[in-house]
């Protein structure tokens, strides 16, 4: 549109755009048709599309939105182009899945690999940096699972799809608290270990007499009292 054609009082343009009001009915018909076709395409893509999405599946969902949007909103765009594009996308995704099934190396390249974030109660700082996962994000995940002591964790993985998998030690040990340090009222519920301190940077637990030394894992000297392993906090 030319700038001289734009007026603040032009409610016809503001509400309906340059298309006639009859296009509203056509938009409804387009939406019903595209939605019905989209359901079929997503069903053919497989059950994974309704679960935790991988990188390629997330890309497909974003692409679908970009494909169907013009066909819903633009009166000069037909829906057949969107249907063909979605079918091409479906064939590409199914082909990619087949290649991932046949070739483990290609699967690792396209989907990514599982990464350890906690190993035997110690934060894996290098892996956290590689996966762009912060300490607070990990602590939040543990609190959400009812885990308030990192010393209880044998392994914490971040899967290729972005989900977290947690495996506990059979015999938990004193470790760093996952509770916010500023919340003193809830911190008071936990029982501290008198003879063990934990590094606030990597969660490494050592005897209290070593708190004047550098952490043997990360090289920092930021210690706090470790907490005793408990299954859950008192309410």
What does this structure look like?
By secondary structure, the protein is an alpha+beta fold. It is built from eight helices and seven strands, in the order H-H-H-H-H-E-E-H-H-E-E-H-E-E-E. The protein has a four-stranded antiparallel β-sheet. Strands 6-5-7 form a three-stranded antiparallel β-sheet, with no helix packed on it. Helix 2 (23-45) packs antiparallel against helix 3, helix 2 runs parallel beside helix 4 and helix 4 (79-102) packs across helix 5. Its main location: membrane. The chain crosses the membrane at residues 28-46, 53-72, 78-96. Residues 102-174 form the YetF C-terminal domain. Keywords: Cell membrane, Membrane, Transmembrane, Transmembrane helix.
Q: How are the SSEs placed, and which strands pair?
A:
Blueprint lengths: L10 H6 L6 H23 L9 H19 L5 H24 L1 H8 L3 E5 L2 E2 L1 H7 L3 H10 L8 E6 L5 E5 L15 H4 L4 E8 L5 E3 L15 E5 L8
Antiparallel strand pairs: 1-2, 1-3, 3-4, 5-6, 5-7
Helix pairs in contact: 2-3, 2-4, 3-4, 4-5
Nutshell version of this structure?
The protein is an alpha+beta fold and about 240 residues long. The chain has helices at about 10-15, 25-45, 55-75, 80-100, 105-110, 125-130, 135-145, 185, and strands at about 115-120, 120-125, 155-160, 165-170, 190-200, 205, 225. It is a multi-pass membrane protein.
Share of residues in strands:
5-15%
Which radius of gyration do the C-alpha atoms yield? 27 Å
- Overall structural class, as computed from helix and strand content, comes to alpha+beta
Total of domains: 2
Continuous helix count: 8
Overall mean confidence score, pLDDT: 83
CATH topology of the largest domain: CRO Repressor
Q: What's the number of extended β-strand segments? A: 7
Helix content: 40-55%
Strand order of the largest sheet: 2-1-3-4
CATH architecture field of the largest domain: 2-Layer Sandwich
Order of helices and strands: HHHHHEEHHEEHEEE
Output the CATH class name of the largest domain: Alpha Beta
Q: Write the CATH homologous superfamily of the largest domain.
A: bsu07140 like domains
Low-confidence runs of at least 5 consecutive residues = none
Span from first to last CA? 64 Å
Main location: membrane
Keywords: Cell membrane, Membrane, Transmembrane, Transmembrane helix
Membrane topology: Multi-pass membrane protein
Subcellular location: Cell membrane
